[in-house]
Amino acid sequence: MHIPIPGVKPEEVDITILNDAVTVRWEYAPTPPEESKNLHRGIQYGTFQEQFSLPAEINAEAAGASFKDGILSIHLPKAKQSKSRKIRVST
Fold first, then answer.
1. Whole domain around residue 46: which residue ranges?
2. Residue 82 lies in a domain
3. What's the total number of domains in the chain?
4. How far is the C-alpha of 79 from the C-alpha of 37, rounded, in Å?
5. What is the largest CA-CA distance in the chain?
6. What is the domain-level CATH number for residue 28?
7. Burial of 72 (0-12, 13-18, 19+ CB in 10 A)
8. DSSP class of residue 11?
9. Which tens digit of pLDDT belongs to each residue from 1-10?
10. Please, are residues 59 and 80 in contact by the beta-carbon 8 Å criterion?
11. How far apart are the first and last CA of the chain?
12. Is residue 81 domain-resident?
């Protein structure tokens, strides 16, 4: 899973895995350059959140994330599925 969040520092990102969902929350508050203090720009700022439903159970202990060039990459390995097993009925 990859999320583009340019201008955000890795320590400003919070990732939570709960049951079958992943929530990514970050805050973006750009500092305007001195020469443009009086200009109005359409830059969004504030707290942002993305939530994703997972199609399969994951191993939260083995999950990880990295951040490079404004792209947050989240690695969510699937949990080992229990194998089916036939049980004989004894008489």
1. 2-75
2. no
3. 1
4. 50
5. 87
6. 2.60.40.790
7. buried
8. G
9. 899 988 888 8
10. yes
11. 51
12. no
